C-alpha cells in the first residue's frame, strides 16, 4: 500500500501548482487549480495551453434560463417540467407574453413526455398530494388560449389511468373542462376540452364518480348547453367537429337517471330528433337516443317529439358494418351499425304504452329486418315487433306486411302465442284462438 501511494505522489508531481502564486497568463488565481475534477475545461498547467488561452480564449459558459424547457432532463423530465410550470404559474400575469410562451413550451415538453403509462403514472404520483391537479386546474383558467388547450390535452393523458381519473374527478377539473366547452376565444380549446371530457366519461368509474359527485349535475347541464349553443344557427362559437364528441359524451352520462332528468329540462330532445331527421352524426346521436330511452321519461319525450318517425328510415340503412378501432383508453370499441342502433332505440321506445300505438309507421321496415343475417339486428327487430304487437291495430299491420311470406307470418304469430303479452289487449283467450 505504501508503494502504491508513493507511485501516486510521483505521478501527481507534474500536476502540482507552480511555485509562483499567480502567473501572468492566468486570468484569476482559481485557474491554477485546473487539475481538480470540478475545474475540467479550464486553463491547463502547461505552457502550450497558457499560450493558447491568451491567443484563443474559451468562451464564457452561457447562462441557463431556469424556466426554459430542456430535453436533457432525462428520466426526471416529468417532475422537473411540472416544477417549472408551478414556478411559472405563481408568477403574476403582468410579466407579459414571455411567461405565456414559457408555459406553452413546457406544456408541449410535458405532452411529449406523457407517451406511455410509466411516464403518466410518474406525473400522477407527483400530484398525489393534490399539487399536480391543482396546478393543471389553475392553468385551465389561464388567459392564454394555447395554455388552456395544452392543459386540457395533458388532462386527457392523465385520464388513461385509474388513479389519474380519480384525481381529475376530485380536483374539480371536470367542471373547468365543461366550462371551456363554450370558450369564446378558440375552437381548439373547445375541441380539446370536449375530447378530454369524452375520454373521461367513457370509463365507468369516472362516469359514476361524476354522476354521484355534488357538482355532477352541473357538468351534465353545461355539456347540454354547450351542445345547444354550438349547434345553434349563426352561433358565434360554431364548432361542427365538436358536436359528435359532445353527443358521444352525453351517451355515457345519460345512463344515470338524474342526468337524463336534467337533460330533458334543457330541451335536448328536440335538437336530438332534428339531428336524426337530417341524418347528421347518426351513430353518436343514436347512442344518445338509446341512452335516453333507457328511462321512462326519456322514452315519452322521444315519442312525443317524433322519435319514431326520425329513425324510421334508418331501420333500412344499407351501410356496411365498419369495425373501426377507437382508442378509448386501452379498449377497442367497434362502431355499431346505424340500423342496429335504430332497432334498439325502437325496441326501447315501444316498451312505453304510447309507443306501442304509434309504431305503425315502423312496421314495414321492422318486418324487413326480420330477414337480416345480422343476429343482433334480427333479434332487436323481433323483440320490437313483439312489443308493438300488443296494440291490436299495430298487430294487424304486422300480419298484413307478412302476407307474402306465410312461413315468416306463422313464425311471428307463433312467437306472439308463446309470449302472451302480445295479446293482453284482447278480450278472448289466445290459447283457444
Automatic annotation (TrEMBL):
What InterPro entries does the entry give? ARM-like, ARM-type_fold, RSP14
Gene3D superfamilies per the UniProt record, alphabetical: Leucine-rich Repeat Variant
Region (Disordered): which ranges?
Answer: 46-72
Would you tell me the protein name for this molecule? Uncharacterized protein
Amino acid at each position: 500500500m505504501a508503494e502504491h501511494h508513493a507511485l501516486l505522489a510521483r505521478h501527481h508531481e507534474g500536476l502540482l501548482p507552480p511555485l509562483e502564486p499567480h502567473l501572468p497568463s492566468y486570468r484569476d488565481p482559481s485557474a491554477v487549480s485546473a487539475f481538480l475534477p470540478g475545474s475540467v475545461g479550464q486553463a491547463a498547467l502547461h505552457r502550450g495551453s497558457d499560450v493558447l488561452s491568451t491567443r484563443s480564449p474559451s468562451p464564457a459558459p452561457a447562462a441557463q434560463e431556469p424556466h426554459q424547457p430542456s430535453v436533457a432532463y432525462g428520466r426526471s423530465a416529468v417532475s422537473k417540467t411540472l416544477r417549472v410550470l408551478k414556478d411559472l404559474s405563481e408568477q403574476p400575469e403582468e410579466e407579459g407574453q414571455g411567461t405565456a410562451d414559457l408555459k406553452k413550451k413546457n406544456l408541449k415538453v410535458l405532452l411529449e413526455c406523457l407517451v406511455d403509462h410509466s411516464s403518466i403514472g410518474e406525473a400522477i404520483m407527483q400530484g398525489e398530494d393534490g399539487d399536480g391537479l391543482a396546478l393543471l386546474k389553475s392553468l385551465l383558467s389561464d388567459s392564454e388560449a394555447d395554455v388552456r388547450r395544452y392543459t386540457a390535452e395533458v388532462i386527457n393523458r392523465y385520464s388513461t389511468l385509474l388513479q389519474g381519473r380519480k384525481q381529475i374527478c376530485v380536483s374539480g377539473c371536470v367542471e373547468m373542462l365543461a366550462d371551456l366547452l363554450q370558450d369564446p376565444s378558440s375552437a381548439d380549446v373547445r375541441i380539446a376540452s370536449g375530447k378530454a371530457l369524452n375520454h373521461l366519461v367513457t370509463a365507468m368509474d369516472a362516469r359514476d364518480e361524476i354522476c354521484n359527485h355534488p357538482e355532477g349535475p352541473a357538468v351534465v347541464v353545461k355539456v347540454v348547453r354547450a351542445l345547444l349553443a354550438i349547434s345553434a344557427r349563426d352561433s358565434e362559437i360554431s364548432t361542427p367537429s365538436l358536436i359528435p364528441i359532445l353527443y358521444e359524451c352525453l351517451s355515457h352520462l345519460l345512463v344515470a337517471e338524474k342526468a337524463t332528468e336534467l337533460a330533458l329540462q334543457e330541451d335536448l330532445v328536440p335538437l336530438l330528433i332534428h339531428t336524426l331527421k337530417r341524418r347528421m352524426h347518426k351513430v353518436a346521436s343514436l347512442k344518445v337516443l338509446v341512452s335516453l330511452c333507457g328511462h321512462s321519461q326519456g322514452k315519452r319525450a322521444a315519442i312525443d317529439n317524433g322519435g319514431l318517425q326520425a329513425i324510421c328510415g334508418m331501420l333500412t340503412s344499407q351501410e356496411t358494418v365498419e369495425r373501426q378501432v377507437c382508442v378509448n383508453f386501452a379498449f377497442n370499441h367497434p362502431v355499431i351499425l346505424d340500423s342496429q342502433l335504430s332497432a334498439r332505440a325502437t325496441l326501447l321506445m315501444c316498451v312505453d304504452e304510447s309507443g306501442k300505438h304509434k309504431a305503425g309507421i315502423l312496421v314495414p321496415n321492422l318486418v324487413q329486418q326480420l330477414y337480416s343475417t345480422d343476429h343482433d339486428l334480427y333479434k332487436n327487430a323481433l323483440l320490437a315487433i313483439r312489443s308493438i304487437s300488443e296494440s291490436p291495430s299495430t298487430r294487424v299491420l304486422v300480419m298484413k306486411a307478412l302476407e307474402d311470406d306465410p312461413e315468416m307470418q306463422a313464425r311471428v304469430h307463433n312467437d306472439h302465442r308463446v309470449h302472451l303479452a302480445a295479446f293482453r289487449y284482447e278480450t278472448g283467450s289466445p290459447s283457444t284462438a
